[in-house]
Amino acid sequence: MPVITFANTKGGAGKTTAALLLATELARGGAHVTVLDADPQAWISSWAQTGSAPRNIDVISAVTAASIQGHLTAARRTSDYIIIDLPGARDTLLANALGCSDQVIIPIQGCAMDAKGGAQVLELLSRLEKSAGIRIPHAVLLTRVNSLVTTRALQMVKALLAERQVRVMDTPIIERAAFRDIFDCGGALTDMDALRVSNLDKALENARAFADEVRALLPYRNTRGMLRRAA
């Protein structure tokens, strides 16, 4: 079962939103997903406590550097995907999570501060490869992208990533009201009322495209041993 870690040493980069969107979309496709919530803000844990989370999503709260290995061992017995939502910090937990990952996703908004936070994660990944021979697949995910305007700052971020030969995921996360409201509403995007949430259809389309891209990268064996791949 793939372990997917969302990491950026800067807070507010969109890690938690992207992690929750991916978890709910993978679950909608039938996967059993475990989310390790290591973010002190515990937004995904709070979302799970609304009581309307999909039954095939388990959320483990208060994950620390000392406990993460034990949580991963337990989750591997039952989960098709494990998603780790990290805090915006450069610490032992970050290093431990990266070392256990099958894919690291680095959310970055179109601003210099996010880019610097993402660069710290990239530097740590490079160090792991050079010192320990551990090469962990990784990609940048552009988040909170304006659906109408490509800003100069976003263009600068893209240029910087291209210069460093960093892979950027094809599907950015667009700024949508539904992506903010899901934490208050609980459940998944499909549980929302299209009459009350603007552009819900566009939000669903964006989340599904993102999840499809991840599934194509990381097919999984479900708990009955059947290999599943993205359609």
From TrEMBL:
<dbReference type="Pfam" id="PF07015">
    <property type="entry name" value="VirC1"/>
</dbReference>
<dbReference type="InterPro" id="IPR009744">
    <property type="entry name" value="VirC1"/>
</dbReference>
<dbReference type="InterPro" id="IPR050678">
    <property type="entry name" value="DNA_Partitioning_ATPase"/>
</dbReference>
<dbReference type="InterPro" id="IPR027417">
    <property type="entry name" value="P-loop_NTPase"/>
</dbReference>
<protein>
    <submittedName>
        <fullName>Chromosome partitioning protein ParA</fullName>
    </submittedName>
</protein>
